[in-house]
Amino acid sequence: MIEVHQLTDEEQWNTYVDRSPAGSIFHRSEFLRAIAAETGMELELLVGKNGEHPIGILPLFTDSTGPFRMVFSPPPHAGVPHLGPGMMLDPNIKYRKAALRTKEFVEACVDWIDREHDPHYIRIITNTEFGEVRPFRWLGFDVTPRFTYELDIDRGESDLLRSFSRDARSSIQDNYNPEYAIADGGQRLLEDETDPEYTIENGGEAEIEYLADRLEQRFDEQGEAFPLSASFLRTIYTDLPDETIDVYQFRSDGQPVSGRISLFYGGWLTYWQGVPKPSVDVDVPINDLLNWRSIRRARELECDTAELSGANIERLWDYKAKFNPELATYYILERTSASTAPLLKLYKWWQA
After folding, report:
1. Burial of 194 per CB tally in 10 Å (0-12, 13-18, 19+)
2. Coil, strand, or helix at residue 115?
3. Which residues pair with 260 in a beta bridge?
4. What is the pLDDT of residues 20-39, one digit of tens each?
């Protein structure tokens, strides 16, 4: 029998995240704590055990400030594409037993949520490493598939480049120079004094501020509000472990024009926050060069997969597809209480 309880030991939680194939950088306690502070929601760390053996984790965020009691994993507008449950099963376990353990864990978690919160609405977004969503459907959840791109980067750079489309390959080979990088703290890696056409700096909090300002401007141009604060991005940067986050600033003629935050964890590279359009016209393919810089760094850190995202957005899918990734599926799991469904549909501010 699976029993679920809240865990308060964040260090122990992170060891469970490390053990789970679905454990991502977004599951780490540092990230979750920052999300809770940014959104004002309550964080609850659920662990399921079979006797003394932990078998699953599920981070939850609860919100009861409005007219409805709601449970999220992850919360809306938190900059987190997916979260949800992660299992910690013996990799040699047979399929039937693994499916049964997962079913029991999901049932125990949903039962705990209902007893503790009696929510009007639950929304969980899985990542691609958690594919056994049938128990949620059997419990009355709506299951909606969504898509992302995953790129195998665990191969030689030449093989990787050859797999790209011709224009992606050419834009990188013709423009990327690994010497046009700047080490942590702004120390130049160039051996001569000649200023290159561009540099990609691995920055810190100052570059975080620049990125936050540019993202806010970009969202404002589209008539939207950028949901994340600069203080949230700074907290993520300062609190995550070493070698799990890089902040790149792309400079042209010495002036910042674009940037990217990339995350590295558990063998995965995630393109997280970035400025899609430079502040001035630049005659080099900025996004391609930032992508390649992130991939090279991820390979140094022994990552084997890059999540490119963008597969659900019509204006982005073709650009991401030129890197020849695999299409992968994750799921949105939703349950709404029957009595509040019509009103809640009007209240779904997170879909605005």
Report:
1. exposed
2. helix
3. 248, 274
4. 999 999 999 999 999 999 99
